[in-house]
Design goal:
Elements (H helix, E strand, L loop, with lengths): L1 H5 L5 E7 L13 E2 L2 E9 L13 H11 L7 H14 L4 E3 L3 E3 L2 H14 E7 L3 H11 L15 H10 L4
Antiparallel strand pairs: 1-3, 1-6, 2-3, 4-5
Helix pairs in contact: 3-6
Length: 168
Amino acid sequence: MDFIDRHAVTHGVYGWWFDNRLPLVPRNGCIERDGKHLLYIGIAPPKDRPERRGGPTPVKSRLWRNHLRGTVRSSTLRHSLAALLEQELELAFWRVERNRVRMDRHHEDKLSEWIATHAAISVVQHDEPWSLEEMLVRNGPPLPLNLSMSGHPFRSTLSNLRRALGRN
């Protein structure tokens, strides 16, 4: 997060890189660097949500609040990772109003620890990140963990794993 502050990244696209400990995810054609593969990209702020004045930058806030310390309800990425790591981390789920998936804080913390150990983040400043995100997801390298706008063949497998959480 210090990088974001030092380089004044406010709006942009961020990439999530994972080592080979993330099960099931195909990595063919994915960009690799330092033993990790780029498997997901996201943006901040979203196109439909204006920036809040006086708080942390949208990029820093989104990464910290939603992905690093958030919940499976607040982050599509965390939801996907939880589905992929359910057995390995012995995660437990239940469903609440409108059929949304939940985990208790202990299991969210286990997921956060796994992310801290096995993932890395890259960030690029862009004033209209939604346009770059769409171009990358539709025309860029394979991004098997992106669901929105994605035509990746792993999309249906990942969607089914996510849908099955908390239904036992």
